[in-house]
Every structure is written in structure tokens, then in C-alpha cells.
Specification:
Blueprint lengths: L1 H11 L2 E4 L2 E4 L11 H13 L6 E8 L9 E10 L3 E10 L2 E11 L23 H7 L9 H5 L5 E4 L15 E6 L11 H12 L20 E5 L1 E6 L9 E11 L2 E10 L2 E14 L6
Antiparallel strand pairs: 1-2, 2-4, 3-6, 3-10, 4-5, 5-6, 7-8, 8-11, 9-13, 10-13, 11-12, 12-13
GO molecular function, one term: fatty acyl-CoA hydrolase activity
Protein name: Acyl-CoA thioesterase
Pfam families: 4HBT_3 (PF13622), Acyl_CoA_thio (PF02551)
Length: about 290
């Protein structure tokens, strides 16, 4: 699986074409739909290449649907370089239009008061099956026209704590958890805090919006709901490595007016290293009349 990790690194490592101008490539992870996590991660890398400080927060909006047949241009604006904090604004453009906008704040590391909530208690990741094996177990439920996309191996290794069949959704609690890590070690010039943060950002959008769908027994996979990420926020509390197991504990607090509010916490070695929040679209599709 080394090729999957290298492909992910190559995808996220946007190329600098001017001091504050970068270009990122796209891939067809979900057909013609551009995966929001990719834009999050590439924008974070672009902003990180303009400072030597690590990011501590990212606040982003998905403005238009992205296309997988066009590269993405990232324009970074240097808003401030202070004694402790640096602020960057990033716009992602395709075909001359802004599809995504983010504010990223970077900080000079320092010591201070330290507190966290108690870590959740879940089985060890090695005792759980990988997502791909769960997919194989429900293959007969996947419509033939979606099988190639659905069965494509994601470029991050995922061990769900409890897998749910998206093609046979049932009403469930919003709580959902997965362990994740890269398939291979990240080494060399790309073994940076920024790249580990970017891969976490990439993965953070993978299943988060499904948490607000769970209590309604609807799914993006069976055509019952139109869903998309609307905004995305991340706070990085402590350094971590994505080539070692992280736990992503997710839940939703509210769904109303065709939107859901979702939250996530990333844990490593008992330490809360990253917090995520996202509002998502969850618009029910009208059933065809006979």
C-alpha cells in the first residue's frame, strides 16, 4: 500500500508558482465530485508554505462544488505576522471562480495551562476490521453502477469501531468512531507538522457529515438525501503523527432546516490532539410520485 500513501502525499503537496500562489491537482475519489477534504488539506499546505509556524486553527467555507477535471489555484494572502501569531487567508479557484475560502492561524509554540476531557474508551484498533473488509461484506447491497466507486480503496487505512451499511440505513445514535492512519510511514522532506495536519484535515471530512444523518435513518448512498459539507473548522491542540493510529470520535448535536451540526475529536495516546466542527447540508430528496 506504499503507493497509496505516496499518491496522497503528492496530491496534497501543492506546487508553489509564486510567493503566495500555489497549484493543486485533483483526483476522482468519488467520481466527478471533488472531495472537500482534499481542498481543506491543500489549502492548509499552501498557507503553511508561507510561514515557519505550525497551524493552530482553520476556519473554512465550501462555496461552490469543485470539479475533478481541473487543477485548483490557491491564492494566499498574508494578513499578519505578529510576535506570536500569523494569519493567512486562502482562496481556492477553478475556472476563474472561488470555490473555497479559509482563514488559517499559525502560532509560535509556548507552554501554558493544560487541561482536557477524559478520553473515550473504545476497543484497540488492531482488534477491529478495516473498512475495506466491511465494504466487501455488503457488496450485494451496492447497486452495480456504484460498485467501482464505493469499492475503491481509500488512501487512508480506516478501522471503524462499528460499521454501518449506508445502503440499508437505520435510525441510530449520532455517535460514530473510527481509527485511522496512513498505510505507510511518512519520511523525508514531507515528514512535517504541516503535512500531518493536512492529512488529518483530509480525512476529517470523510465521514463527519454522516453523524447528523444517523438518527433519521437516511443516507447519502441510497439517494434519500442530498448532502454536502458547508463549512469546516479545525483546532490543532498538540502535535501528532498520522502514520500512527489516531481515534476520530464523532457526534452531532442538531439537525434542522436542512442542515446538521457535526463535531469530531481526534485522539492519540490518550491525548486530545485536534477538534473538528462542521455544518452540513442534509436536504431530503422528494420521492417520485407514481
Amino acid at each position: 500500500m506504499r503507493l497509496l500513501t505516496q499518491e496522497l502525499l503528492d496530491l496534497l503537496n501543492v506546487q508553489q508558482i509564486d510567493q503566495y500562489l500555489f497549484q493543486g491537482q485533483t483526483n476522482q475519489l468519488f467520481g466527478s465530485h471533488l472531495f472537500g477534504g482534499q481542498i481543506l488539506a491543500q489549502a492548509l499546505i499552501a498557507a503553511s508554505k508561507t510561514t515557519d509556524r505550525p497551524a493552530h486553527s482553520l476556519h473554512a467555507y465550501f462555496i461552490r462544488s469543485g470539479r475533478t477535471d481541473l487543477p485548483i489555484l490557491f491564492k494566499v494572502e498574508n494578513l499578519r505576522d505578529g510576535s506570536s501569531f500569523s494569519a493567512r487567508q486562502v482562496h481556492a479557484l477553478q475556472d476563474g471562480e472561488v470555490i473555497f475560502s479559509a482563514m488559517v492561524s499559525f502560532v509560535q509554540p509556548e507552554q501554558g495551562l493544560d487541561y482536557q476531557i477524559d478520553p473515550p474508551d473504545y476497543p484497540h484498533p488492531e482488534s477491529l476490521l478495516p473498512e475495506q473488509e466491511h465494504k466487501l461484506s455488503i457488496l450485494e447491497d451496492v447497486p452495480s453502477k456504484y460498485r467501482d466507486i464505493f469499492m475503491q480503496q481509500f488512501n487512508i487505512l480506516i478501522h471503524p469501531v462499528e460499521f454501518s451499511n449506508p445502503f440499508r440505513p437505520q435510525k441510530q445514535k449520532t455517535q460514530y468512531a473510527e481509527y485511522f492512519r496512513s498505510f505507510d510511514k511518512i519520511e523525508g522532506k514531507l515528514d512535517t507538522i504541516a503535512m500531518h495536519q493536512a492529512i488529518a484535515a483530509y480525512y476529517s471530512d470523510y465521514n463527519l457529515l454522516t453523524t447528523s444523518l444517523r438518527p433519521h435513518g437516511v443516507s447519502y448512498a441510497n439517494g434519500g438525501v442530498q448532502s454536502a459539507s458547508l463549512d469546516h473548522t479545525m483546532h490543532f491542540h498538540h502535535h501528532f503523527r498520522v502514520d500512527e493510529w489516531l481515534l476520530y470520535d464523532m457526534y452531532a448535536t442538531r439537525s434542522s432546516q436542512a442542515r446538521g451540526l457535526n463535531f469530531g475529536e481526534m485522539w492519540q495516546n490518550g491525548k486530545l490532539v485536534c477538534s473538528v466542527s462542521q455544518e452540513s447540508l442534509m436536504r431530503q430528496r422528494k420521492k417520485p410520485t407514481s
